[in-house]
Amino acid sequence: MNEKTTAELEHLRGLIDGVDQQLLHLLRKRLDLVAQVGTVKHGAGLPIYAPQREAAMLAKRREEAKNMGIAPQLIEDILRRLMRESYLNEKDVGFKQVKKDLGSVVIVGGKGQLGGLFSQMLTLSGYQVELLDKDDWQQADSLFADAGMVLVTVPIAITCELIREKLNQLPADCILADLTSIKTEPVNAMLEAHSGPVVGFHPMFGPDVGSLAKQVVVVCHGREPDKYQWLLEQIAIWGARIVEAEPERHDSAMQLVQAMRHFSTFVYGLNLCKEEADIDTLLQFSSPIYRLELAMVGRLFAQSPELYADIIFAQQDSQHAIGDYLDNYREALELLKRGDRDEFIKQFQTVAKWFGDFAPQFQRESRIMLQSVNDMKTN
Ligand SMILES: C=C(O[C@@H]1C=C(C(=O)O)C=C[C@H]1O)C(=O)O
Fold first, then answer.
1. Which residues line ligand 1 (CB under 6 A)?
2. pLDDT confidence of 53, banded at 50, 70, 90?
3. Closest CA to ligand 1's atom 16
4. Long-range contacts of 318-325 (CB under 8 A, 24+ apart)
């Protein structure tokens, strides 16, 4: 590089630094405004996540960007990232407490990760939360006596037994709820053990989400829904979307969404391990899609084996769904062995047709994810 080029670059880079610093000041200003919105919402009991406002705002900014010669997707990406920050910041202000006269909430297994998250959200909403873990059962009776709600979030393998043996003497009007990732058996166990209000939840996210904005919570009604309607409103204020489902319908969807998904991820990891794949080398040659896939597989093994064993082993029917998968895998492998390229293409087209409009939709969504995977690279 000659001196002139160096000087020119330095000059321009200095200007860019100045613009980025202005951006920082603007970000500070935006965060402060969002915090004020948070306070207003807190006072009025409005949900943290306002999808219509977001859609309207994004549409306007996209239009304005276009008129300014800026790619609409650029402002959309930036604003979506900023809005994620807004949810975290609004959360700190706390949330309106929908039910004032509840009594305490006892979270059984509250020292676990998901229990911890719900404990935090309930506390931020003004509820008195008591944690009951396996070492403090001697306090159980006195905690239950004042409980307006008991929330069970213990490993799946012990959930039903615990409900039947330990939660069968709750005050009659106490709400009994759980967060287990299967629903039929726990909801039945709660209905058997307790004669008062019963409701099952399955939060469709892990404990590391930061904010519940845009997350999904499945609810399976048990008994006396009018007694726990406030809780559904409370969850909506946290920003989550409530999806109602029959326990059986939920569980059969979960076979594919969870048991099969996690099991095939497990086998993928097992295969890499047995083949003694060199992850460093794989990463060196990885395309963004491979890196994303590897990240999704690898992240499983950063978590608790017991949790995944529970999710996969909890449902008797999972083995059938996984067995079907294996049959399809075997049949597809036969195509490969036979060198039947034409049949492969035929089946590909059948599946593509079956995906319908979802295929291009997923392609668009994944493009954005893959681009951010690429952005994360540092060399
Ligand atoms: C700030 C608000 O809360 C959330 C965050 C938004 C943002 O950062 O612009 C917009 C809508 C809400 O989902 C709001 O409601 O205006």
1. 34, 37, 49-50, 53-54, 82-83, 86
2. very high
3. 37
4. 318/255, 318/259, 318/260, 318/263, 321/255, 321/256, 321/259, 321/260, 322/259, 322/260, 322/263, 322/264, 325/260, 325/264
